[in-house]
Protein backbone atom coordinates (compact mmCIF):
# COMPACT_ATOMS: atom_id res chain seq x y z
CA UNK A 1 0.00 0.00 0.00
CA UNK A 2 1.37 3.41 -1.00
CA UNK A 3 2.03 5.98 1.69
CA UNK A 4 -0.20 9.04 1.56
CA UNK A 5 1.51 12.30 2.44
CA UNK A 6 -0.56 15.15 3.85
CA UNK A 7 -0.30 18.89 3.17
CA UNK A 8 1.07 19.25 6.72
CA UNK A 9 3.81 16.74 5.87
CA UNK A 10 4.87 18.72 2.78
CA UNK A 11 4.74 22.01 4.70
CA UNK A 12 7.07 20.54 7.34
CA UNK A 13 9.38 19.11 4.63
CA UNK A 14 9.80 22.53 2.97
CA UNK A 15 10.49 24.13 6.36
CA UNK A 16 13.07 21.40 7.17
CA UNK A 17 14.69 22.07 3.78
CA UNK A 18 15.01 25.80 4.51
CA UNK A 19 16.34 25.11 8.01
CA UNK A 20 18.93 22.76 6.48
CA UNK A 21 19.89 25.42 3.91
CA UNK A 22 20.35 28.05 6.62
CA UNK A 23 22.39 25.65 8.75
CA UNK A 24 24.47 24.50 5.74
CA UNK A 25 23.73 20.96 6.93
CA UNK A 26 24.66 18.54 4.15
CA UNK A 27 22.94 15.45 5.53
CA UNK A 28 19.76 17.32 6.45
CA UNK A 29 19.65 18.74 2.91
CA UNK A 30 20.22 15.31 1.35
CA UNK A 31 17.37 13.89 3.46
CA UNK A 32 14.93 16.33 1.84
CA UNK A 33 15.50 15.22 -1.77
CA UNK A 34 15.11 12.26 -4.06
CA UNK A 35 18.60 11.26 -5.27
CA UNK A 36 17.83 12.49 -8.81
CA UNK A 37 16.23 15.79 -7.78
CA UNK A 38 16.55 18.83 -10.05
CA UNK A 39 16.52 22.52 -9.10
CA UNK A 40 15.75 24.78 -12.08
CA UNK A 41 16.67 28.48 -12.19
CA UNK A 42 16.15 31.44 -14.53
CA UNK A 43 18.88 32.34 -17.02
CA UNK A 44 21.89 34.27 -15.79
CA UNK A 45 23.30 31.88 -13.20
CA UNK A 46 26.27 29.62 -13.89
CA UNK A 47 25.95 25.83 -13.96
CA UNK A 48 22.15 25.60 -13.91
CA UNK A 49 20.05 23.61 -13.48
CA UNK A 50 21.41 21.82 -10.43
CA UNK A 51 20.93 18.08 -10.88
CA UNK A 52 21.05 15.52 -8.03
CA UNK A 53 20.51 15.90 -4.31
CA UNK A 54 24.28 15.97 -3.79
CA UNK A 55 24.78 18.90 -6.17
CA UNK A 56 21.86 20.89 -4.74
CA UNK A 57 23.09 20.33 -1.18
CA UNK A 58 26.69 21.35 -1.96
CA UNK A 59 25.61 24.46 -3.90
CA UNK A 60 23.48 25.76 -1.01
CA UNK A 61 26.31 25.12 1.44
CA UNK A 62 28.61 27.10 -0.87
CA UNK A 63 26.11 30.00 -0.83
CA UNK A 64 26.04 30.06 2.97
CA UNK A 65 29.82 29.90 3.26
CA UNK A 66 30.63 32.31 0.40
CA UNK A 67 27.72 34.77 0.29
CA UNK A 68 26.54 34.59 3.88
CA UNK A 69 23.22 33.35 2.51
CA UNK A 70 20.18 32.86 4.69
CA UNK A 71 16.61 32.32 3.54
CA UNK A 72 13.19 33.10 4.90
CA UNK A 73 9.92 31.57 3.80
CA UNK A 74 7.33 34.29 3.25
CA UNK A 75 4.35 32.17 2.14
CA UNK A 76 3.59 28.49 1.51
CA UNK A 77 0.68 27.00 -0.43
CA UNK A 78 0.34 23.22 -0.44
CA UNK A 79 -1.98 21.36 -2.80
CA UNK A 80 -4.72 19.45 -1.01
CA UNK A 81 -4.80 16.64 -3.59
CA UNK A 82 -1.47 16.58 -5.48
CA UNK A 83 2.16 16.20 -4.38
CA UNK A 84 3.07 19.82 -5.15
CA UNK A 85 3.47 23.17 -3.44
CA UNK A 86 4.29 26.82 -4.11
CA UNK A 87 6.23 29.17 -1.87
CA UNK A 88 7.55 32.73 -1.80
CA UNK A 89 10.94 33.33 -0.21
CA UNK A 90 13.65 35.89 0.41
CA UNK A 91 17.32 35.02 -0.11
CA UNK A 92 19.41 37.26 2.13
CA UNK A 93 23.00 37.64 0.86
CA UNK A 94 24.40 39.01 4.09
CA UNK A 95 28.01 39.53 2.99
CA UNK A 96 26.94 41.92 0.21
CA UNK A 97 23.98 43.41 2.08
CA UNK A 98 21.61 42.44 -0.75
CA UNK A 99 18.55 40.25 -1.05
CA UNK A 100 16.62 38.48 -3.77
CA UNK A 101 12.93 37.68 -3.61
CA UNK A 102 11.25 34.95 -5.56
CA UNK A 103 8.91 32.02 -5.71
CA UNK A 104 9.33 28.28 -6.23
CA UNK A 105 7.16 25.45 -7.45
CA UNK A 106 7.81 22.10 -5.73
CA UNK A 107 7.05 18.61 -7.02
CA UNK A 108 7.34 15.73 -4.55
CA UNK A 109 7.89 12.00 -5.01
CA UNK A 110 7.75 9.37 -2.26
CA UNK A 111 7.70 12.05 0.43
CA UNK A 112 10.81 13.90 -0.82
CA UNK A 113 11.48 16.92 -3.03
CA UNK A 114 11.84 15.73 -6.64
CA UNK A 115 11.93 19.11 -8.40
CA UNK A 116 12.09 22.81 -7.60
CA UNK A 117 11.43 25.49 -10.20
CA UNK A 118 12.65 28.91 -9.03
CA UNK A 119 11.24 32.20 -10.32
CA UNK A 120 12.96 35.45 -9.36
CA UNK A 121 11.48 38.87 -8.73
CA UNK A 122 14.21 40.55 -10.74
CA UNK A 123 14.72 42.31 -14.06
CA UNK A 124 14.32 40.21 -17.18
CA UNK A 125 17.41 39.29 -19.18
CA UNK A 126 17.07 41.59 -22.20
CA UNK A 127 19.46 39.38 -24.21
CA UNK A 128 17.12 36.39 -23.93
CA UNK A 129 14.08 36.33 -26.24
CA UNK A 130 11.97 34.27 -23.81
CA UNK A 131 12.92 34.53 -20.15
CA UNK A 132 12.39 31.06 -18.74
CA UNK A 133 14.08 28.42 -16.65
CA UNK A 134 17.25 27.02 -18.16
CA UNK A 135 16.89 23.48 -19.56
CA UNK A 136 13.29 23.03 -18.34
CA UNK A 137 11.15 21.00 -20.78
CA UNK A 138 8.33 23.51 -21.31
CA UNK A 139 7.06 21.74 -24.45
CA UNK A 140 7.14 18.29 -22.86
CA UNK A 141 5.27 19.57 -19.79
CA UNK A 142 2.51 21.11 -21.92
CA UNK A 143 3.35 24.78 -21.38
CA UNK A 144 2.39 27.36 -24.01
CA UNK A 145 5.25 27.98 -26.45
CA UNK A 146 3.83 31.20 -27.86
CA UNK A 147 1.32 33.85 -26.94
CA UNK A 148 -2.30 33.15 -27.76
CA UNK A 149 -2.23 36.47 -29.62
CA UNK A 150 0.93 35.79 -31.63
CA UNK A 151 0.89 35.22 -35.39
CA UNK A 152 0.47 31.62 -36.49
Care to describe what's here?
The protein is of the alpha+beta class and 152 residues long. It has one domain (7-120): Nuclear Transport Factor 2, Chain: A. The protein has three helices and six strands; from the N terminus they run H-H-E-E-H-E-E-E-E. The protein has helices at residues 7-23, 26-30, 53-67; strands at residues 33-40, 50-51, 69-78, 84-93, 98-109, 112-120. It has a six-stranded mixed beta sheet with strand order 2-1-6-5-4-3, with helices on one face. Strand 4 (84-93) and strand 5 form a beta hairpin. The longest helix has 17 residues, at 7-23. It is globular and about 45 Å long. 22% of the residues are buried. The mean pLDDT is 91.
CATH fold title: Nuclear Transport Factor 2, Chain: A
Rg is 16 Å
Name of the level-1 CATH class: Alpha Beta
What pattern of helices and strands is seen along the backbone? HHEEHEEEE
User: How would you state the average pLDDT, rounded?
Assistant: 91
Strand order, sheet with most strands: 2-1-6-5-4-3
The CATH architecture is Roll
Give me the number of helical elements: 3
Proportion of helical residues: 10-25%
Count of individual beta strands: 6
The class by helix and strand makeup works out as alpha+beta
Shape: globular
How many structural domains can be distinguished in the coordinates? 1
- The fraction of residues assigned to DSSP E strands is 25-35%
In angstroms, what separates the terminal alpha carbons?
A: 48 Å
Subunit arrangement of the protein: single chain
Largest sheet: 6 strands, mixed
- Low-confidence spans: pLDDT under 50, at least 5 residues? none
